[in-house]
Amino acid sequence: MTSIDLPRGHAVRLGLERLSRIIGIDPRLLGMLLVLVVIWLALNIATGGTFLSARNLFNLSLQVAVVGVMATGMVLVIVSRNIDLSIGSVLGFVGVFGALMQTEWLGLGHGYTWWVTSLLMLLLGTVIGAGQGAIVAYGGVPSFIVTLGGLLFFRNAAFQINLGATVAPLDETFQLLGGGLNGTIGAFWSWICGGLAIVAIAVSSILIRRKRQRFGFAVRPLPMEIVGIVLWSALVLVFVAVMNAYPQPKTNEPMGIAIPVLILIGVTLIMTIVARRTGFGRYVYAIGGNPESAELAGISVKFTIVKVFALMGLLAGIASIIITARLNAGASVTGTLTELNVIAAAVIGGTSLAGGIGTIYGAVLGAVFMQSLENGMVLLGVPTPLQKMVIAVVLVAAVWIDRVYQRSRT
Which of 63, 157, 205, 320 could bond 371 through an S-S bridge, CB–CB 3.0 to 4.6 Å? Predict the structure, then answer.
């Protein structure tokens, strides 16, 4: 039976599977990527070409960085059959703490202000995450309840430590971490990073292919492998070209890739290695698949859960640095409802709420999807309450699609 004889839906599915083998990603994520392209084109038409302008895509990359960094951690939290509702509040609390650290305790203008503040913000986020994880793991309190309490506690703590006042301005070097004050690497170094990324894509593909051959696993035909490398390399070149197409307001020089985007790329690579190549990552997926079997296999389930939440807190600290530096201020309202975007990004990216299934790159793609919707609605002048309503509907739809997909695989 040829694809012409098949029902249309089945033929489309087969087409997605073939294309997914070329690109090397899950068919479901490939389908989401195609939907994202359609949404981008629709938003670009609706906004009169503004959405796909270099300026807006540059701003979109900064918005994705905050949600994307935290979404990589949320994958492991959900994979381990838990949830973290507090990350938006932790984001705001750590941000106000960092702003006060610079303006009140360390002082501006010192060479050490930015990095001491950054380290303390990371430490604070990690401690908060580990504390909540310990209550979940050793206290036996469901993560939903613990982190819901954390959402309320840290949101109001962010208000309490400075009585709701916005703390600004911040250290100029610190602002670079958020892409402010021309916190980019410029056109030349952007092309260098793009070239290195292409080399990494090619080398990684070759090494994975050789490893699969060495262990007797099936590999893609060589022409298909080459096409995949070319497609990913073209995507990298397009991204760098777009970032360089946006000129700096004062000097008219190309902006290049923003520092927050580089941070997101680094976090994504590290988290992918952690999830796929380390014992900790394998333990998390084993716990999500079957906690009882993981315990019987000798895995310290409770301590692993603590480490998962500590890692989530660390990533919330990184995201807090990015957004606080970008806003050049610490405010108690920063990060309000951000947890909704982060959870939605992880679920849309293929992370199953049943646990045990999820990818880091899928969560980042989900973050691009969510922030694209929000960015487009802002450009169209959609009221904020309606924006949140749309995001809520998208989250519910994503969970429903996940259920349908899991049943179809079974």
Answer: 63
Could you tell me the pLDDT band of residue 1, with boundaries at 50, 70 and 90?
Answer: very low
Residues 386, 338, single domain; the answer is: yes
Give residue-wise pLDDT tens across range 30-50.
Answer: 778 888 999 999 999 999 999
Round to whole Å and give the CA distance between 382 and 327.
Answer: 22
Round to whole Å and give the CA distance between 121 and 125. 6
Query: How many independent structural domains does the chain possess?
Result: 2
Pair (375, 291) in one structural domain: yes
**Is 299 within the bounds of a domain?**
yes
Beta bridge partners of residue 247, listed in sequence order: 254
| Same-domain pairing of 243 and 310 | no
Question: What distance lies between CA 251 and its chain's CA centroid?
Answer: 31
pLDDT (tens digit, 9 = 90+) per residue, 303-355? 999 999 999 999 999 999 999 999 999 999 999 999 999 999 999 998 988 88
Please tell me the pTM assigned to this model. 0.93
Identify the domain boundary among 257, 283, 315: 257
Residue 159: CB atoms within 10 Å: 17
Considering the domain architecture, whether residues 93 and 151 belong to the same structural domain is answered as: yes
Contacts of 361 (CB under 8 A, 6+ apart): 25, 29, 268, 272, 349
Report the DSSP beta bridge partners of residue 258.
Answer: 184
Q: Which domain holds residue 250?
A: 184-257
On average, the pLDDT of the chain sits at 91
Q: What does DSSP assign to residue 247? A: B
